[in-house]
Amino acid sequence: MEWPAWLCGLWALLLCAGGGGGGGAAPTATQPPVTNLSVSVENLCTIIWTWNPPEGASPNCSLWYFSHFGNKQDKKIAPETHRSKEVPLNERICLQVGSQCSTNESEKPSILVEKCISPPEGDPESAVTELQCIWHNLSYMKCSWLPGNKTGPDTNYTLYYWHSSLEKILRCENIYNEGQRIGCSFNLKDPSLEQGSIQIMVKDNAGKIRPSFNVVPLNSHVKPDPPDIKNLSFKNDGLYVEWKNPENFQSTCLLYEVEVNNSHIVSEIFPVEEIKCQSSEGRICLLFPSVLPDTLNTVRIRVKTNKYCYEDNNLWSNWSQAMSIGEKTSSTFYITILLIIPVIVAGAIIVLLLYLKRLKIIIFPPIPDPGKIFKEMFGDQNDDTLHWKKYDIYEKQTKEETDSVVLIENLK
Ligand SMILES: *[C@@H]1O[C@H](CO)[C@@H](O)[C@H](O)[C@H]1NC(C)=O
Ligand SMILES: *[C@@H]1O[C@H](CO)[C@@H](O)[C@H](O)[C@H]1NC(C)=O
Ligand SMILES: *[C@@H]1O[C@H](CO)[C@@H](O)[C@H](O)[C@H]1NC(C)=O
Ligand SMILES: *[C@@H]1O[C@H](CO)[C@@H](O)[C@H](O)[C@H]1NC(C)=O
Ligand SMILES: *[C@@H]1O[C@H](CO)[C@@H](O)[C@H](O)[C@H]1NC(C)=O
Ligand SMILES: *[C@@H]1O[C@H](CO)[C@@H](O)[C@H](O)[C@H]1NC(C)=O
Ligand SMILES: *[C@@H]1O[C@H](CO)[C@@H](O)[C@H](O)[C@H]1NC(C)=O
Ligand SMILES: *[C@@H]1O[C@H](CO)[C@@H](O)[C@H](O)[C@H]1NC(C)=O
Ligand SMILES: *[C@@H]1O[C@H](CO)[C@@H](O)[C@H](O)[C@H]1NC(C)=O
C-alpha cells in the first residue's frame, strides 16, 4: 500500500493516517499479512488452506495465525500455517487469515487475506437434492437423494464415499430406486469411526449434473435394528417382558418404547429410559404393573439411540416382532361381536330396502306376510315414518322459515 506522496497529501487524513508505514515514522508497526495463501481439496470434502509466514515480521514476534470462515464463524488462533475443514462443497466457502504476535484474541491481527473455493461447475438445479444417509445397525450405510429438477429421467447416478479408515475413495455399487428417491447402500462396520464423519458425493456417469456433497457425522443418523422379544410372563400382578437388544448396541446407549395392546387398553405405549433389571444372557427385562392375564396382550418394542452415546436420536428402529400372551377367548369374543354386528345390520338394511322398494310408498300396518317378522320393529318406529311425511312438505316449510327470519330482521 504505497501511495504517491501527493496523493497522500490530498487524502492524508482519510487514507494514509496510520496506514502501512510507507513514509514517515510508523508509531505502532502493524503485523505484515501472511503470504501465498492457497486452498486445495483432499478426499471428497476435506478442504485445506495453507499459507506462508509473513515477510518482514519482527524477530521478536512469535507468530500466531488468526483465521475464520467467511461469515466470521469458527475463529481460531493457532501457530500452524494451515487449516482444514470437512465441509460439503455445495457452496462457495472462504477462509480469512491474518498473523499476530500473541494468542491474545484482542490483539489486532494483520490485514486479513482471503481465499475461497467454489463448488464444482454446473447448473445448481441439475444437482441432486436432499442427499441424506442413515447408518443402519452400525453395519451398513444407506444414502438416498431426489433427482435435481433439471435432470433427465435416464440419468445414471454414482455415489462415492470416503472416511478416515479408507485409503482411497470408494464407489457405491448398489444403486436402486425407492419410490421417488434413488439410493445406494454400502457396508460400514468399523466401530472406531463413531467419532468421525463420512464424506459423500453423488454425480452422474455422463458428467451432466453438478456433483452434490454431504458430510455425515457418524455419531448421529444411526438406526438400530429392532430388538427381539424373548419371553412374556405374568409375575407379581404385572406383565414381565424380556427382550434382547440389537447386536452392536450397549443397553446404556438405547432408549426403548414398549407397546402393549389388549382389549382393555387399545394401545398403550410405555417410553422406557431406565432399565430396571437385567437378567442373565444379556437380556433386558421390564415389569408392567396392572397388565392382567384375563385378556390377550400383544407386545412389541422398538429402540433408538440415546443422547448419552449419540448426537441426535430421532430414528426409531422398526418395531420388533409382536408377541402375545393371555386369554384369547375374550378377544375372540370381541372380534366375533365386532364382525357379527355389522353383518346383522347390513342384512336388516337390505331386507328393509327391498321391502320399501316393493311397496314404493310408506305404509302403515297391517303388514303383509313377508314382513311379519318385522312387525314389532315397525310398530315401534311409527314416529320415524313421520319424517317421510315431513319430507313431502319440505319446500313449503323452508319457505315459511325464511319468512320468519326476514320478519325477525325487520324487527331489529
Ligand atoms: C510464495 O511462493 C513462491 C512460489 O512458490 C515462493 O517463491 C515464495 O518464496 C513464497 N513466499 C514466501 C513468503 O514464502
Ligand atoms: C526485541 O527485544 C529486545 C529485548 O526485549 C529489544 O532490545 C529489541 O529492541 C526488540 N527488537 C524489536 C525489533 O522490537
Ligand atoms: C490482551 O490484550 C489486551 C489489550 O491489548 C489487554 O488488555 C489484555 O490484558 C490482554 N490479555 C492477555 C491475556 O494477555
Ligand atoms: C446387525 O449387525 C450384526 C452384527 O454386525 C449382524 O450380525 C446382523 O446381521 C446385522 N443385522 C442386519 C439386519 O444386517
Ligand atoms: C427447481 O428447484 C428450485 C429450487 O429448489 C426452484 O426454485 C425451481 O422453481 C425449481 N424449478 C422447477 C422447474 O421445478
Ligand atoms: C444409463 O445407462 C443405460 C444402461 O447402461 C444407458 O442405456 C443410458 O443411455 C444411460 N443414460 C445416460 C444418460 O447416459
Ligand atoms: C418365560 O418365563 C417364564 C417365567 O419366568 C418361564 O417359566 C419360562 O420358561 C420362560 N420361557 C422361555 C422360553 O424362556
Ligand atoms: C396396537 O394398537 C395400535 C393402535 O390401535 C395399532 O396401531 C398397532 O398396530 C397395534 N399393535 C399390534 C402389535 O397389533
Ligand atoms: C424396516 O421396515 C421396512 C419397511 O417395513 C423394511 O423395508 C426394512 O427392511 C425393515 N428394516 C429392518 C432392519 O428390519
Automatic annotation (TrEMBL):
Assigned keywords, A-Z: Disulfide bond, Glycoprotein, Membrane, Receptor, Repeat, Signal, Transmembrane, Transmembrane helix
Gene Ontology annotations for the cellular component aspect, listed alphabetically: external side of plasma membrane
The protein's role, per its UniProt record: Binds with low affinity to interleukin-13 (IL13). Together with IL4RA can form a functional receptor for IL13. Also serves as an alternate accessory protein to the common cytokine receptor gamma chain for interleukin-4 (IL4) signaling, but cannot replace the function of IL2RG in allowing enhanced interleukin-2 (IL2) binding activity.
SUPFAM superfamilies (UniProt xref): Fibronectin type III
Signal sequence interval, chain numbering: 1-22
GO MF assignments: cytokine receptor activity
Membrane topology: Single-pass type I membrane protein
Subcellular location: Membrane
Domain (Fibronectin type-III) ranges: 223-328
Pfam families according to UniProt: Il13Ra_Ig (PF18001), IL6Ra-bind (PF09240)
PROSITE patterns: FN3, HEMATOPO_REC_S_F2
Oligomeric and partner information: Interleukin-13 receptor is a complex of IL4R, IL13RA1, and possibly other components. Interacts with TRAF3IP1. Interacts with IL4.
Protein name stated in the entry: Interleukin-13 receptor subunit alpha-1
InterPro entries: FN3_dom, FN3_sf, Ig-like_fold, Il13Ra_Ig, Short_hematopoietin_rcpt_2_CS, TypeI_recpt_CBD
Family: Belongs to the type I cytokine receptor family. Type 5 subfamily.
Species whose genome carries this gene: Trichechus manatus latirostris (Florida manatee)
Chain segments annotated as transmembrane: 333-356
